[in-house]
Amino acid sequence: MTNKPTIAIVAAGQMGSGVAKRLTSPPHSLTILTNLEGRSAASHRRAKEAGMEDISLSEIIQKADWVLSILPPSEAFGFARKFRDAVDSETLSSTDARFVDCNAVNPETVKRIRDVLVEDSGGSRRKVRFIDAGIIGGPPNLKTGYDPVFYASVDEGDEDLLAAFEGLKEFGLNVKGLRGEGAGVGDASALKMSYAGMTKGIIGICTTMILAANSSSPATATALLHELHDSQPSLLQRIITSTPSMLPKAYRWVGEMEEISSFVNTSLTPPSQPIDPNSFSSYENDEGKIHEGLARLYDRVDNSLNGQGDDSVAVLKKFVQDAEKMVVEIFMDPSVFNRKTRITLNMSRCPSDLYLWPMKDVWSNIIFANSGGRVKSTS
Questions:
Q1: Is the C or the N end of the chain the one with fewer CB within 10 Å?
Q2: Ramachandran region, residue 145 (left: φ > 0; alpha: ψ -120 to 50; beta: rest)
C-alpha cells in the first residue's frame, strides 16, 4: 500500500461530508481536512460527524495532498479565487497544490476556474495542478457499500496527474479517468451535465406535468395517476421513489439546472454565432431554454417547501401517497397473486415489473400480515 494521502474537502455539505465519512472510516481511516469559515451550523455538525478536521485555508494548502471542491454551483468560482489568493500568499514546497473541482458546473465555468487557479496575471503558471471532476450518484452509504463515481479529466500533458487521482481508489474514492479522443478539462463536467440533465430533467418534467394536471383539476391528476399505473408503471415507480427525496434538494438543483442550460446553449449554438456562456436569461437556441424552465420549476418547489409559495409540495405529496396506496391495493388483490405466491415471492420479481422493488419493505409487511405471521420477509 502507498502512503496514506491527506485530503481536504470543501465544504461539509451532504456530499462532501458523505465522501469524508467514507474516507475517514476503516479500513483506510484517512485524515480529511476542511475549512468551515462562514459555513452553517449544519455544516459544522456534519463535519464533526464525518471526522473532518477544521483548519484554515492556508494550513490546507500546506498540509493537503489533494483539495476537493464540493460546493453548490454558485460558490464554485468564488472558492477557486479564494484558494488562488491563499496560494499566492503562501510559500509552497516543491510539490504543487492539486485542486480537483468536483462541482456541478458547465464546461465553460470549469475552464474559467482552471484558468483562475493555474495562470497568474502575467500568463505564467502558478504552482497549482488542476483536475476537472464530475460526481455522478448520491453520497456514499457505508451500510450498503454504495459509492458515487468521480469521473475525471485533465489537460493534455497532465496524464500523470489523472493517474495519481485514480490511485485514490485504493483509499475508497471511486475515480474513473475520462480518456479518449478530444478528452480534456471540461469533459468530466460535460458528462455530469449530460447525466444530471437526463436524470433530474426527467424528475422535473414529471413534477411539472403533475402540477399542471392538478391545476387543471384534481380529477385530471387522478386520471393521470391511473393511466401511469396502467401504461407506464416504471415511470410511476420513478415518481414514487424520486419525488420525496427531490423536495429537500430542490434549492440545490436550481443552480445546477442553470448550469446545464448554459452547457446546452453553448454546445448547440453554431460556432459562428456569438454567445454569452454566463447568461441564463437569454438563449441563442431554444434547446437552451429547457433546463432554464426546470430551474424555475425547482425554485417553485423550494419556495413551496419553505411556505413562501403555492401548494406545489402538498400536491406532489398527495400524488405520491395516492400512487403508493394504489400499488398496495393492487398487490393485496387476490386475483393478482394468491397467498402462496405472495409468501414465496422473490422481492426482485415484484408484480407487473420491477417498479415495485423500491417498496420492498412495504411488501414484506404485507406478506407477513397475510401469512398468519409465519413469514417476516422475503428479501
A1: N
A2: left
